[in-house]
Amino acid sequence: MILNIGLLAGEEQWMIAAIMGADMGMIFAGYMGSVALVPTVKWLWFVIGLVVYIPVVIALVRIFRQCVLDKYDMDRIELYGKVSLLTVVSWSVYPFVWLLSVGTGGLGVSAESILYALLDVTSKCFFSFMIIQMDVYESASAETQKEYV
């Protein structure tokens, strides 16, 4: 998703790759926290995941947004605003599910699985539907006449 959002914003490849790395670090920290047996280690991984999540949010809310504002028209800016808001809001709910399930043990495995599935559908499927409904990825050359032999 970060790749798509970065490309939509027209951001440079190195910045997209750096934010993708932070995203992978966040996911890894969440996984390590969920499999850790020692409570202190579990909470340490949770905090590391939150710290690594901060640059992702900053990139989506400020850096990528400024890039799209500088380079593109209102249709793309509006689409970027929608997909980045959906991403930040839905991804921000994941830590709360982790807290309620793995962190405190307040939710059972079934409830945890259902909540993660709902978040995945919201964050990934709706994101994809929003992206494919717009034709902002079409290049300007698509508007020119093509000669068929």
TrEMBL record:
The keyword Transmembrane applies. Keywords: Chromophore, Membrane, Photoreceptor protein, Receptor, Retinal protein, Sensory transduction, Transmembrane, Transmembrane helix. It is a multi-pass membrane protein. It is found in: Membrane. It holds the Pfam family Bac_rhodopsin. One of its GO terms (molecular function) is photoreceptor activity. This is Opsin. It comes from Guillardia theta. The lineage of its organism: Eukaryota, Cryptophyceae, Pyrenomonadales, Geminigeraceae, Guillardia.
